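Milestone 3.1: sequence recovery, worked example.
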């Protein structure tokens, strides 16, 4: 029997990106060898690393490679070295281009508080212990991409900055469906956030989400909440939530907040998914929620778990390997259970590992 080949494109990017993606590479190699799978890995430049060599944050060639892969795993984009570049040339544009042009409209960001790490949170243990929420963030619309946009001179030597927040009903429907479908596999409960008290686009969001529920998801519990209230409730009582559905900008902010509830940005993966194409394939990009962390780059101290958990999401959502996904997740759990930590989540009495040692420890638990 011939093995099914799965193409994975690795885009390590900037800062700690290359270090954490290197650990993912080791794990993929382990799977190839020990689970007789046939992953074909390719690696290429993105973000500042691409600017340095090619003068652009992502080349067309890399972009087309990402179109042809079964999953793309990205490390991180950006850093102080490129902060002074003109907006359209900055490393982050690579990420936004990939999201927009691969049409990755659904961003799934789990915030799970590992019981072994409740003490790492700045919140009281009883508030966060056992926390398991999923933020479903719209990723290709809203104020991130709306037109008109820009900075323009106006009278009296003043300047005006403009961005446009816009959503159509179909854009809202497709992301709402992702949230409701996911709800069926979780606690059957969705909280949808907007600012319908001040924004027309917020009213539309609320009404259209409600329509989708009334039509096709009668058994899913839906609550609407103003986004500012949601930010507050996340700190007051985060366990009231299961799935939080939000637009691009609110989802960006709420997911950072939710991530920090868990105490460790270094553990949280994310998946960005598109619609099914003609061949039934879903385009996808996986990345850790954390950024490039330039202050600790190159020191072999970054936590690779968020990126490794991103691989686990890829195995589940894009590569049709749920067993391998579970295997990897339990390997991570086992390593934490045994008291192994990277510097960011280190506490008294635990054993500190470097980035590469953490990758090795997880591999040793796969066996
Ligand atoms: C994120 C990041 C990005 C965003 C930046 C790097 C463009 O904050 O993925 O949450 O704002 O979407
Ligand atoms: Mg963000």
């Amino acid at each position: 029997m011939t093995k099914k080949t799965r193409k994975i494109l690795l885009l390590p990017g900037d800062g700690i990106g290359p270090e954490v993606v290197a650990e993912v590479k080791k794990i993929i190699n382990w799977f190839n060898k020990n689970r007789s799978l046939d992953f074909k890995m390719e690696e290429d430049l993105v973000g500042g690393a691409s600017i340095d060599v090619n003068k652009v944050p992502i080349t067309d060639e890399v972009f087309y490679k990402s179109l042809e892969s079964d999953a793309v795993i990205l490390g991180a984009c950006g850093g102080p070295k490129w902060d002074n570049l003109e907006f359209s040339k900055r490393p982050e544009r690579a990420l936004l281009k990939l999201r927009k042009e691969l049409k990755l409209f659904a961003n799934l960001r789990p915030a799970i508080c590992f019981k072994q790490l409740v003490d790492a949170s700045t919140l009281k243990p009883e508030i966060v212990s056992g926390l398991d929420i999923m933020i479903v963030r719209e990723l290709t619309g809203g104020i991130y991409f709306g037109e008109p946009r820009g900075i323009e001179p106006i009278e009296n030597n003043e300047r005006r900055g403009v961005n446009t927040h816009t959503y159509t009903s179909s854009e809202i429907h497709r992301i709402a469906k992702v949230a409701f479908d996911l709800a069926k596999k979780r606690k059957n409960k969705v909280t949808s956030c907007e600012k319908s008290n001040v924004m027309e686009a917020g009213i539309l969001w609320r009404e259209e989400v409600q329509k989708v529920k009334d039509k096709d998801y009668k058994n899913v519990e839906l609550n609407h909440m103003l986004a500012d209230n949601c930010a507050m409730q996340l700190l007051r009582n985060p366990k009231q939530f299961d799935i939080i559905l939000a637009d691009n900008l609110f989802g960006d902010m709420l997911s950072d907040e939710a991530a920090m509830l868990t105490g460790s940005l270094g553990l949280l993966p994310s998946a960005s998914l598109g619609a099914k194409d003609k061949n039934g394939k879903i385009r996808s990009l996986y990345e850790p929620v954390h950024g490039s962390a330039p202050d600790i780059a190159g020191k072999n101290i970054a936590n690779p778990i968020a990126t490794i958990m991103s691989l686990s999401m890829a195995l589940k959502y894009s590569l049709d390997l749920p067993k391998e996904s579970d295997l990897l997740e339990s390997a991570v759990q086992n390593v934490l259970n045994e008291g192994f930590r990277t510097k960011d989540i280190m506490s008294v009495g635990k054993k500190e590992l470097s980035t590469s040692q953490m990758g090795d420890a997880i591999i040793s638990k796969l066996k």
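The longest strand covers residues 5-13. The pocket of magnesium ion (ligand 2) is lined by residues 252, 256 (CB under 6 Å).
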